[in-house]
Amino acid sequence: MSDTITISVDAMGGDNAPKAPIDGARLLLRERPDAKFIFHGRAEVIEPLIAQHPDLRARSDIRHAEIVITMEDKPSQALRKGRGTSSMWAAIQAVKDGDADVAISGGNTGALMAMATFCLRPMEGISRPAIAAIWPTLKSDIIVLDVGATIGADADQLVDFSILGAAMARALFDMETPSVGLLNVGVEEAKGNEWVKDAARILASSEGGGFKYHGFVEGDDLGKGTVDVVVTEGFTGNIALKTAEGTARQVGTYLSKALRAGFFSRIGALLATSALSALRSKMDPRTVNGGVFLGLNGVVIKSHGSTDEIGYKSALGLAYDMARNELIGKIADGLERFHPAALPVENLQSEAPSA
């Protein structure tokens, strides 16, 4: 890989585009001076904003794309109107063409997944891609997937997600053998639906893949950091993610109101400024912004659409790290090394104990 990491940016995706992506890139460039950017979108809007920052302008290429995918566009509509012409498609196409190492967009998630899957195609051996999120815990950050790409994944797909999540953990956290757990309603072997139990049997009787299978984990294990990678299907994962984000905002609001409740509360807040600042930073969703599309022949990052330049800088930093640490190579290595010794899933289902 080149010493330079080139990030392809859908500059028109998101509520605060194109200013937030551009300002986020400016902030990242201060920490990653070897980064380069390709901004896709309406050049007449992008050019004046980048021109305000000579350092960023010197490390950027602007490619005009007239069509903008909106948040209201359905994936099928986005493909029809935006294939080959939109800023979102152009950002992904740059990765496929080898012009960029990674693509990022804050636009419509469904449209981005549809375009990324259509353009980059799933890696050999992967049936469906997944979206992985970084999750702060009491111990350290972990990986949680799938958080919305595949609803109702079967056993084989959960096994795929385990390989994908472990590869991301190795790339992001520099781990040799991260631990992987399957999210379930209990840790006992007899609990859960059949495909989760089937996936557990496959993972427990396999070797390679670049991870250590821990077993079942429950919802409270997400915050504890019991394992390095938590695997589930997209319906459950997305609800868990939105619940955690909402709870963080709720607690933050409670804290803010409590600190303004009276004179002595304000005095206490003043004395605890350092600790409170650290807590606010830990609970700030902008610091862990970015979902990684895993399982495609190229890396695509989804930023929160409503985030500001701080959040975009975080997502761009994630994109940089995934490219710099060769995520695709680690996934390919995990797929090659994974050797399940279990019976085929169709045979396992007849043997599964009842819950």
Q: Keyphrases for this structure?
A:
48% helix; alpha/beta; 355 residues; two-stranded antiparallel ribbon; disordered C terminus; 13 strands
Describe this structure in words.
The protein is of the alpha/beta class and 355 residues long. It is 48% helix and 16% strand. It contains 15 helices and 13 strands. Strand 5 and strand 6 (142-145) form a beta hairpin. The model is unreliable at 342-355 (pLDDT under 50).
In short:
This protein has 15 helices and 13 strands. The protein is an alpha/beta fold and 355 residues long.
Radius of gyration, in Å, reads 21 Å
Terminal-residue CA separation: 49 Å
Shape: globular
How many distinct beta strands?
13
Number of distinct helices: 15
Q: Provide the low-confidence segments as ranges.
A: 342-355
Secondary structure: helix percent: 40-55%
β-strand percent reads 15-25%
For the largest beta sheet, what order do the strands appear in spatially?
3-2-1-4-12-11-5-6-10-7-9
Largest beta sheet, briefly? 11 strands, mixed
Order of helices and strands: EHEHHEHHEHEEHEHEEHEHHHEEHHEH
Please, what is the average pLDDT?
Answer: 88
Structural class: alpha/beta
